What does this fold into?
Amino acid sequence: MTDNLAVARDLELSYGSHVALRASSFEIPLVGATAVIGPNGSGKSTLLSALAGLVPATGGTLTVLGRDPAAVRNRISYVLQATPVSVGVPITVREAVMMGRYPRVGLFRRFSKADHAAVDGAMAHMAITDLADRHLYELSGGQRQRVLVAQGIAQEHEVLLLDEPLTGLDITSARTIDDLIHGQRADGCSVVLTTHDLDEARAADWVVLVSGQVIAYGPADQVCTRRNLEVAFGLGSLHDWDGFLNDPHEP
It folds into this structure.
């Protein structure tokens, strides 16, 4: 047993010769919501992929649930941002959510009553039951994001990783996903999400502030200070802040 979801010591993450995250040490506690916040290109998504066991450490160490991340992938559900879907991919909402059960049922995909119940429950949780027979390409971006999250929670998991789950969503989709993020604690699950939204970060139980390396981590009120945010986002980038932090150098 461990008291932490993740522990990193001098962790470095790279893609070829590009260092996405310089040597960083941090901890993420079990159960509750952790927000990973930082500018575009700061290493947030790479860090999330490392927690999912998809990007190996190129320096230092990272453990998840007390083990190498790749060894606990079956205990982790990783949800990416929704992307446009081609009309040539005629997959329905129910079929997409059912894919969340594939790791459990295996190659022959013989679904049990429990599998169907998990899918029905996930769709109800994300308020997409009425969309079950619609094709993904017919949905709005917010609806597709809810489908992906439903697919993620249909999978048996102890950890839910969400990459920018609230960016650019309609209010209904954003509220539905936000309720899930802050409700997973009751199910004994840990949630880690990347975000640019300072309000979302401040509502989290734990925050990891990233800008090429981990600047700070801990409770939101200790991490989301003006000094830390100006270090991460650039001096002066918080002038006229409206709650959504973007890289000031982005066009």
